[in-house]
């Protein structure tokens, strides 16, 4: 299954810091995942298109919303209150203009193993970094007609 995101972030999926207190993070939500409850997930890959970046390489961390049928945050405090779990980290050294991939197999497996999971529900992932350097990475979101965030699941 290849799922496209239909709703994305509080802004563009941006991972950024100005070396001060202004840190940014985003999320990507996939609203209708057609994977049955309890199925064995062979692989799951989250792909985000790196639209632009500034600064040096930085570790971009992906977490998952550990809930059934994840709902999009309605604001900053709701975003922070989510049950973000896991820590798939990738140091992004690639140039802008290509997809960056994270292995999220264990995340997807944990979600579909939840007793309340059903095919057709939503999954959601947060992207962020804890780097103290100055950087800015912009990923494409659902409003762009090309290079959408994708979640590729093989079961």
What keywords describe this structure?
155 residues; mainly beta; 4-stranded antiparallel sheet; 9% helix; 47% strand; disordered N terminus
Briefly characterize the structure.
With 155 residues, this protein is mainly beta. The protein has helices at 76-81, 105-112, and strands at residues 2-4, 14-18, 23-24, 26-33, 43-55, 58-65, 84-92, 98-103, 121-128, 134-139, 150-154.
Please explain how this structure is put together.
- Helices cover 9% and strands 47% of the residues.
- It contains two helices and eleven strands; from the N terminus they run ββββββαββαβββ.
- The chain has helices at residues 76-81, 105-112, and strands at 2-4, 14-18, 23-24, 26-33, 43-55, 58-65, 84-92, 98-103, 121-128, 134-139, 150-154.
- The strands form two sheets. Strands 1, 2, 3, 5, 8, 10 and 11 form a seven-stranded antiparallel beta sheet that branches. Strands 4-9-6-7 form a four-stranded antiparallel beta sheet, with helices on one face.
- A hairpin with a 4-residue loop joins strand 2 (14-18) and strand 3 (23-24).
Class by helix and strand content?
mainly beta
Give the oligomer, counting copies of the same chain as homo and different chains as hetero: single chain
Strand content: over 45%
Spatial separation of the terminal alpha carbons: 8 Å
Instruction: Calculate the mean pLDDT score and round it.
Output: 78
Largest sheet: 7 strands, antiparallel
Number of helices: 2
What order do the helices and strands follow? EEEEEEHEEHEEE
**Whole-angstrom Rg:** 15 Å
Report the helical percentage: under 10%
Number of strands: 11
Shape: globular
Poorly predicted segments: 1-22
């Amino acid at each position: 299954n290849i799922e496209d995101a239909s709703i994305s972030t509080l802004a563009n999926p941006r991972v950024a810091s100005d070396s001060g207190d202004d840190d940014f993070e985003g999320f990507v939500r996939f609203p209708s995942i057609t994977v049955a409850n309890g199925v064995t997930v062979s692989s799951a890959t989250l792909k985000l298109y790196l639209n632009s970046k500034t600064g040096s390489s930085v570790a971009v961390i992906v977490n998952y919303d550990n809930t059934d049928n994840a709902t999009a945050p309605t604001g900053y405090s709701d975003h922070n209150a989510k049950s973000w779990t896991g820590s798939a980290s990738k140091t992004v050294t690639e140039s802008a203009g290509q997809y960056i991939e994270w292995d999220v197999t264990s995340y997807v497996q944990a979600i579909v193993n939840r007793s309340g999971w059903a095919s057709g529900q939503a999954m959601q992932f947060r992207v962020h970094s804890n780097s103290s350097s100055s950087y800015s990475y912009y990923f494409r979101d659902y409003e762009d007609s090309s290079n959408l965030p994708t979640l590729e699941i093989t079961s």
